[in-house]
Design brief:
The complex is a heterodimer of chains A (47) and B (190). Chain A is built from 2 helices and 1 strand. Chain A has 47 residues and is mostly helical. Chain B has a domain at 73-182. Chain B contains 7 helices and 4 strands, in the order αααααβαβββα. In chain B, the strands form 2 sheets. In chain B, strands 1-2 form a two-stranded parallel ribbon. In chain B, helix 1 (3-20) runs parallel beside helix 7 (167-182) and helix 2 (33-48) runs antiparallel to helix 4. Chain B starts with a helix and ends in an 8-residue tail after the last helix. The chains are: A mainly alpha (47), B mainly alpha (190). The interface between A and B is large, with 26 and 55 residues.
Amino acid sequence: MKNISRQITVTASKMNSDTVKLVLLIVSISLFVLGAGAPAGSGGIGG
Amino acid sequence: MILLFAVAVGLLAGIIRARIQKRRINLPSLRLTWLVILAFFAQALVFQLPATRYRVSEPVVSAALVGSQVLLVIFAVANLKQKGFWALTLGLLLNFIVITANGGWMPISPETVMQLVPGAMPGSLHVGSRFGASKDRILEPTNTVFPWLSDQFLLPEWIPIHVAFSLGDVFIAIGAFLFLWSLGGPQAKS
């Protein structure tokens, strides 16, 4: 468990903060687009 | 899901634009992003998750849709100064208007449904019923408020994805593209 925790900490500290910001930006816009849009697919499953 | 295509294309275009012009990617700060997460979570419960989407009554589904779109309107207006958000906000408002004007559902005509599902028997599509587990309700155009804002457009037949979309969806796709394209542009002056 300690090893996993240490690994996560090391990986997170290695990640560029700009990359994290970009990922959060993309996730935010993707979720907005899915929530705001209302297309209907052939299976009747929109989103 | 078709709208995510605009996100992917816009992101790719923004990255290529930044690379060509040897710039760093712009990373604007969006305000109130937690509203987007909250709105998406509400919609995921009533539209996406198999464990919950068929168990929720239709009035609750439509209330969740309208309520979540109110949250998204607040988010969009709070970020209106960002590039592309004029189109995102306009598209959202067009969808929001037609959905609220038609009882909390996006209207879709029986003709459009027949084009989407060519194998469906005409009698199996009940006017007034929900179209699958989507945000749409099947309504005759004569009984639809603002039918020109409904899910009425179809992709060309040579595209293997069958989906109906609205004018609002078009603006949302344009807005997503413009916002992500702007990430590769000049740094905004603070």
